[in-house]
Specification:
- The chain is α/β, with parallel strands linked by helices and 279 residues long.
- The chain is built from ten helices and ten strands.
- Helix 1 (38-50) packs parallel to helix 10 (269-278), helix 3 packs parallel to helix 5 and helix 9 (235-255) packs across helix 10 (269-278).
Length: 279
């Protein structure tokens, strides 16, 4: 098992050339945001933008939402854009799950994106839908493009058919079984987040603190990882670097007196940006 520390990161973001444009830094689409849960999509999309992705789409199921007034740089769209997502420039990453819900519309959106031939990150309710649908599980396993799963212990337990307590009792075994079963990079969240690729060793994160036990933290992590993939990192490297950045940003916030009690997910992306630009 490898500990994830600043000096053990498998790669670092490349410096930006002087002659560049937003098209050089990939695209991210975050799909979710059922009524009452749009904040999850916006947290993930903001994180992707703050991490340098060239274009970021927040695809929300709640069609009443057309703008993020706090971050107007985000392109807010609705499920009718899904047929156009395969046209995103390479490299790109799609994220399905933040605030997705488990409605028929959520299932249809997930099914459409699983079939697309580009990197895909599955989080939150996307994982719950997969756990409940054997045919959808097989579609995920059969994907030819890279897949990342980011479960917390409860979601991991549902995917493995066991309790969250059993997952926690054998976190290395659980992340390895998930990675092998789904042929995916798996990020098993929690204290000492674990990352495992099908043919790789287990990585254990050393950054982070109890302030991260707060709403929306997983959404921010999904956006960070997706942005790194969109900028050219392999999915395994993006997951390893992303979980370290996520925790290190929380540590920075605590050092500034913003936690651990009362730390919020929206306070992390600006600090992740600072870490990326100091690397």
């Amino acid at each position: 098992m490898h500990d994830i520390r600043l000096n053990t990161l498998p790669t670092r973001p490349s410096p930006r050339p002087v002659d560049c444009n937003k098209g050089d830094f990939g695209a991210v689409a975050i799909i979710g945001g059922a009524p009452g849960m749009v904040g999850a999509v916006l947290l993930a999309a903001r994180a992707a933008l703050f991490c340098g992705a060239g274009r970021v789409y927040a695809v929300v199921l709640d069609t009443r939402i057309g703008l993020d007034p706090t971050v107007p740089e985000l392109m807010v769209a609705h499920p009718d854009i899904l047929p156009l997502l395969p046209l995103l420039p390479h490299p790109a990453c799609r994220v399905v799950g933040p605030g997705l819900g488990q409605s028929a519309a959520a299932h249809a959106a997930l099914l459409a994106v699983v079939a697309m031939d580009q990197p895909l990150l599955l989080d939150a309710d996307a994982l719950n839908l997969i756990a409940a649908d054997p045919a959808l599980r097989e579609r995920v396993r059969a994907r030819g493009a890279p897949t990342v799963l980011t479960p917390h212990p409860g979601e991991a337990g549902r995917l493995l058919g066991m309790s969250s307590q059993a997952v926690q009792l054998d976190r290395p075994g659980s992340v390895a079984r998930l990675s092998e079963s789904f042929r995916a990079v798996v990020v098993l969240k929690g204290a000492g987040t674990l990352v495992k690729a099908p043919a790789g060793e287990i990585w254990r994160n050393t950054s982070g603190n109890p302030g991260m036990a707060a709403p929306g933290m997983g959404d921010v992590l999904a956006g960070i990882i997706a942005a790194l993939i969109a900028q050219g990192m392999t999915v395994e490297a993006a997951a390893v670097v992303g979980v370290w950045l996520h925790g290190a940003a929380a540590d920075m916030a605590v050092e500034e007196g913003l936690g651990p009690r009362g730390l919020t997910a929206s306070e992390l992306p600006p600090r992740v940006r600072r870490l990326l630009n100091s690397a």
